[in-house]
Amino acid sequence: MSAIKIRSVVPEDNKALAQVLRDVLIEMGVPKVGTAYEDEALDMMYETYDAPRKRYYVVENNGRIIGGAGIAQLENESSEICELQKMYFLPEARGKGLGSQMMNKCLEFAKEQGFTKCYLETMPYMEDARKLYGKVGFTSLDAPMGNTGHYSCQAWMIKEL
């Protein structure tokens, strides 16, 4: 994995990125309803994140997308709260520190945009992801925030930036 690059999403990434995200969601056993799987944004990630205070990053290995993560304001919440969104990696990208690098890049962007808190939703059984979130200071919440439409996600976390 010597040719790994983290960069902002571009229009040409849309199709491959949608496939990567859906493949990981299926692999993880995430329900197709009430999760990111059914988000219209998956098919147009560049257009979705091409807006103020939003950014989506992809991880690329030799020109092939192997993961990604994004930041956007949490819908129906204070303008000071952002959400870490759609952070998923193919198996070949896991265990190499890319999740930490990606999260740091996203959280740094969030701070630059003036957000003071970052929220995320995940599944209770995604233990590796939850460990990573905990390491960078995310703590569990008892209930969801905002209005993401992801009613099948049953674990919620927040971090002060």
Supply database-style keywords:
seven-stranded mixed sheet; single chain; alpha+beta; 161 residues; globular; 4 helices
3D architecture notes:
This protein is of the alpha+beta class. Helices cover 27% and strands 29% of the residues. The protein has a 7-stranded mixed sheet, with helices on both faces. The longest helix has 15 residues.
Helical content stands at 25-40%
Give the N-to-C terminal Cα separation.
Answer: 31 Å
Mean pLDDT: 92
Shape, please? globular
Q: Please provide the count of β strands.
A: 7
Strand order of the largest sheet: 1-2-3-4-5-7-6
Question: Any idea what the radius of gyration is?
Answer: 14 Å
Class per helix and strand makeup? alpha+beta
Order of helices and strands: EHHEEEHEHEE
Q: Give the low-pLDDT segments.
A: none
Outline of this structure?
With 161 residues, the protein is α+β, with helices and mostly antiparallel strands. Helix content is 27%, strand content 29%.
Outline the secondary-structure elements:
Blueprint (H helix, E strand, L loop, with lengths): L3 E5 L5 H14 L17 H5 L5 E7 L2 E10 L7 E9 L8 H15 L4 E6 L4 H9 L3 E3 L13 E6 L1
Parallel strand pairs: 4-5
Antiparallel strand pairs: 1-2, 2-3, 3-4, 5-7, 6-7
